[in-house]
Inverse folding.
């Protein structure tokens, strides 16, 4: 197909009219769209739709600066160029494709958001311009940090930062649509909170994963990726390899244990907490130690205190006290799309400075109500004399002995250098995550990726890793780009926007 209109003037007027809830004939070239009721969120969804339909003139800032129908028509209308051979797959008849446009490694929230953005893109273009994608996920079903779905824990981001809203406020995959489908919309509104329970957000993600029209191989672990001169070949344990023109790696992070600590049934990272607790041998000591000062550490401490009412909980960390997470409005700007662009165009020193300024939004920081709740519990125990919760600041675990019957732990108070030896049933390290090295995921192909002086991948603004000329396709990263794209990289905050940017890059790099 060639020379057909991608975005005719009629289509553009129809799109605007639909969003405003008016008949197209009510819009003239002179209509001012702000006066007609268009707001920036709806404008964003139009821009997204038109950009994915291939309009280079669909630019949010430009359109917002002159919100007049005639001006927009001139800017946005575009004719399609000739179809580029071999860049799209025949997916319109539902047949199995041999080579896909993109293989996604991992199917957590990042690649789920991408799958939705691809589905929405495919709906807005004709079959020749659709993107064929396939995802491999090592878990047997969709799951988002299931081991930390602790009762009562809430999200650290607004529900509006769901999988889609910031990219397409009209998407059927929004958290609000999920609530409506679950018949809970008014109850949620009455709840008056921006922060759903983590269990509820997990249910939303599962709902979206069930609903999205995506080709996902569950129980499929990518063991390495090769470039065969024409395509990427993703090697999957126990299954045939999958070939793709491009790769999007969204495989999450590796749990971080302090040097020298070996994981066991009684010594473990918090990431799989619930599974480890289920597998815990009979309790002999009725005592737990939790190491760490971040949100997860505080949540684990509170959970153990609730779930084991006969046990002591010792929370150990180097600070004097937990630090409140900075969730204030200006600090939150560090998660905006503009901040990602700013971060990427900054030099190495400025990037580091920005990360340092705003670490407190995410790292080693705890929601203030949880800090207050822990303090309240500990204080009440002081009053009653029945102590079970011991928050031990300025301290560290200096020795561990893991035995059949429990773990002997030495806790050192750093200022006084006094030590306390206690026996416990388990010690939990809530000591964060580290990026997975690309070579661990990709195998030898990782060596074709360019890195900085700290071995971190060099990544362009559209999340594409710079590679040697030997690699013809694009390797995109979701996560593992904090050094190039800033603090949102490891979080959910920017998923919706990032997935739209990835689709745009996939489309334009054809
Ligand atoms: C307990 C907890 C709570 C959090 N809460 C928030 C929050 O409230 N707000 C926020 O913004 N962020 C939060 N985060 C940050 C978190 O990293 C993101 O929420 C999110 O998980 C990022 O999604 P992802 O898809 O990039 O990575 P993940 O969710 O880690 O998903 C990666 C997926 O890749 C799969 N995988 C890995 N290797 C392979 C392979 N070789 N082959 C196939 N599949 C593979 C994994 O099984 C996994 O399903 C939280 C993190 C934790 C641990």
């Amino acid at each position: 197909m060639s020379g057909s209109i991608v975005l005719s003037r009629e289509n553009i007027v129809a799109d605007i009219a639909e969003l405003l809830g008016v008949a197209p004939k009510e819009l003239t070239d002179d209509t001012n769209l702000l006066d007609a009721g268009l707001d920036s969120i709806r404008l964003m969804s139009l821009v997204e739709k038109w950009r994915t339909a291939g309009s280079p003139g669909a630019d949010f800032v430009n359109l917002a600066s002159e919100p007049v129908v005639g001006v927009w028509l001139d800017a946005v209308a575009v004719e399609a160029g000739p179809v580029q051979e071999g860049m799209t797959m025949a997916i319109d008849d539902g047949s199995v494709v041999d080579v896909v446009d993109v293989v996604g490694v991992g199917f957590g929230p990042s690649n789920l958001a991408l799958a939705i953005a691809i589905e929405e893109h495919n709906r807005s273009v004709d079959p020749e311009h659709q993107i064929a994608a396939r995802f491999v996920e090592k878990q047997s079903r969709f799951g988002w940090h299931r081991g930390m779905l602790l009762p009562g824990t809430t999200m650290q981001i607004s529900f509006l930062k769901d999988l889609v809203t910031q990219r397409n406020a009209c998407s059927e995959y929004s958290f609000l649509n999920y609530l409506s489908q679950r018949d809970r919309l008014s109850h949620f509104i009455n709840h008056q909170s921006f922060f759903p329970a983590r269990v509820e957000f997990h249910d939303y993600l599962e709902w979206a994963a069930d609903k999205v029209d995506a080709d996902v191989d569950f129980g499929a672990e990518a063991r390495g990726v090769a470039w065969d001169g024409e395509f990427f070949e993703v090697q999957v344990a126990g299954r045939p390899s999958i070939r793709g023109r491009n790769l999007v790696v969204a495989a999450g992070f590796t749990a971080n244990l302090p040097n020298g600590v070996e994981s066991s049934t009684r010594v473990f990272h918090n990431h799989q907490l619930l599974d480890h607790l289920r597998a815990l041998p009979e309790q002999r000591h009725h005592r737990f130690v939790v190491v760490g000062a971040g949100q997860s550490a505080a949540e684990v401490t509170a959970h153990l205190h609730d779930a084991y009412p006969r046990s002591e909980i010792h929370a150990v960390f180097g600070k004097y006290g937990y630090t409140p997470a900075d969730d204030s409005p200006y600090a939150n700007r560090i998660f905006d799309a503009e901040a990602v662009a700013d971060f990427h165009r900054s030099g190495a020193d400025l990037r580091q400075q920005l990360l340092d300024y705003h670490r407190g939004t995410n790292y080693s920081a705890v929601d203030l109500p949880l800090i207050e709740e822990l303090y309240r519990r500990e204080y009440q125990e002081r009053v009653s004399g029945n102590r079970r919760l011991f928050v031990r600041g300025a301290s560290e675990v200096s020795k561990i002995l893991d035995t059949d019957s429990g773990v002997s732990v030495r806790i050192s108070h750093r200022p006084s250098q006094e030590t306390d030896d206690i026996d416990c049933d388990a010690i939990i390290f809530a000591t964060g995550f580290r990026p997975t090295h690309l070579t661990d995921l990709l195998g030898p192909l990782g060596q074709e990726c360019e890195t900085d002086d700290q071995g971190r991948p060099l990544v362009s603004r559209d999340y594409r890793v710079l590679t040697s000329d030997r690699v013809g396709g694009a390797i995109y990263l979701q996560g593992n780009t904090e050094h190039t794209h800033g603090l949102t990289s490891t979080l959910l905050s920017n998923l919706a926007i990032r997935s739209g940017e990835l689709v745009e890059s996939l489309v334009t790099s054809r």
